[in-house]
Amino acid sequence: xHIGEVGxxxxxxxxxxxxxxxxxxxxxxxxxSDVRQTDIAPTLxxxxxxxxxxxxxxxxxxxxxxxxxxxxxxxQVRLAQxxxxxxxxxxxxxxxxxxxxxxxxxxxxAQAGDTFDQNNLGGAFQLAxxxxxxxxxxxxxxxxxxxxxxxxxxxxxxxxxxFIWMAVLWR
Length: 171
Prior knowledge:
Elements: H1 13-16, H2 40-47, H3 69-94, H4 103-117, H5 121-170
Helix pairs in contact: 3-4, 3-5, 4-5
């Protein structure tokens, strides 16, 4: 464990930012922009020829992985399907009374599959990526909605306690 100058793992650059080094068959050599930790599992799964983990939230770092256009399209369509499934499960758990997934999300996913079947690989890839991003935004929206809904009752509990504490200190 790295301990920063302040005595704990704080927000120092050498604690937060660490290099990612990938070497092996299927890895494109080069220097890349910053990588989010959530992108590592889907990328490694792709390199190993496996499906992305069911709860993965990151993207596949296609710029680091040597895949032909068909393999990229297949992988992105599968990732979009994984993300739509994750969004459905996430929304069901975090806000059971919420509406089901938007029909447009399911239609976009189906259209990505149809576009792939028509051998429009670039179109399938882009539509699948947009579907994945839409599912990610939907999960964030539901999460923020749940957090906002839970803040008000907590505030109503904290305010009287603060006033009582201030009254005790005042005396």
